[in-house]
Amino acid sequence: xxxxxxxxxxxxxxxxxxxxxxxxxxxxxxxxxxxxxxxxxxxxxxxxxxxxxxxxxxxxxxxxxxxxxxxxxxxxxxxxxxxxxxxxxxxxxxxxxxxxxxxxxxxxxxxxxxxxxxxxxxxxxxxxxxxxxxxxxxxxxxxxxxxxxxxxxxxxxxxxxxxxxxxxxxxxxxxxxxxxxxxxxxxxxxxxxxxxxxxxxxxxxxxxxxxxxxxxxxxxxxxxxxxxxxxxxxxxxxxxxxxxxxxxxxxxxxxxxxxxxxxxxxxxxxxxxxxxxxxxxxxxxxxxxxxxxxxxxxxxxxxxxxxxxxxxxxxxxxxxxxxxxxxxxxxxxxxxxxxxxxxxxxxxxxxxxxxxxxxxxxxxxxxxxxxxxxxxxxxxxxxxxxxxxxxxxxxxxxxxxxxxxxxxxxxxxxxxxxxxxxxxxxxxxxxxxxxxxxxxxxxxxxxxxxxxxxxxxxxxxxxxxxxxxxxxxxxxxxxxxxxxxxxxxxxxxxxx
Length: 496
Prior knowledge:
By secondary structure, this protein is an alpha+beta fold.
């Protein structure tokens, strides 16, 4: 068994041709480039048992030779694909289960007799070996298509596969290539695209989940895994957000970036790092951009929509809605430019390089102690900001809301180290408090956006909208008082 370590990058066909001729590649090449024609058939069962086991089985024809490959396990982090791989030559264009078993590849029980072709990849591969930063890297330039029945999608990508040396050099090489041509870090494998075609299923937004933690893990490994989970959450939803497939994609991008900010703050508190500090600053700027677009989303689709539903014939409201839609579209255009930019791709690649760095040993504190310390501190911050509230001060409510959000995300990340039975009531009280604070913040933001729209001609209409949301604000403040008392009564589930 081998472990395949590669970085996948999407590139347009015209930029692929341009890069192929660039002298930078010639300066790094330690072998002549060669072109291969690769035709692969992927197999699975009717119920997609292999995919459900996170496995992929293919039979590839390379010239007159046939190679059988089983991939399984592994992970994708910041665009770096690492998977277990069992590969063996076979004599004919047929699966050979004995050969697969001989090289250590094991299929799930009862699968071998039910396998059938599900999709095909058919592409040309230009291959060269590069010597970069002391690492040997195989660069593959792939052009072709994936076919499943009557459906197809194009292939145009780079694969940088590590043959020897440090994985961080894959990211550093990609950053150097980004200075030559536009690239996008590819989170999805060819096999995953093939399955989407085969099932003819509509893609859906991905809700990021943190892996369960174990007390024996090191703090460094856990922090790296949490950062990788957040990056994967963001990356998997960016394409759908840019294509505007569903508003949930953009929402999940925002959630992923907020979670990333929280875990970066935890990581920086644990171990100071100049590069990570700069990455966190850039993530914060991106969060601000996406936050502005969310403000207009909520204002248009919730605040104004509720008033317009009750007064559908009000001409003044229709005018305010039209102006707000225009402002919303402008914010979305700016946000989409940020996510589609090469600066965003550079940010992802810098994260990837940082995650492959050499790190010092862990401090003399266990993961459990570290998590307890983080959660206690977050809990105290919430109590502090809640006790400092003076009436219905919007700025102080905002600070309290942010503290609640940081606490909740920290629990999502680290809570699996503690007994679920002890944390359930605490998390419910916190979620209720955070939800009410979110609504209060949306109302406060609505007032600010209304101020920006105000003029003499629209004054009466905006006064109407303000009166409507003020009524909602008073109701929510009463709910907040009750929710705050319930939260304060909770005991920390993390112990002393």
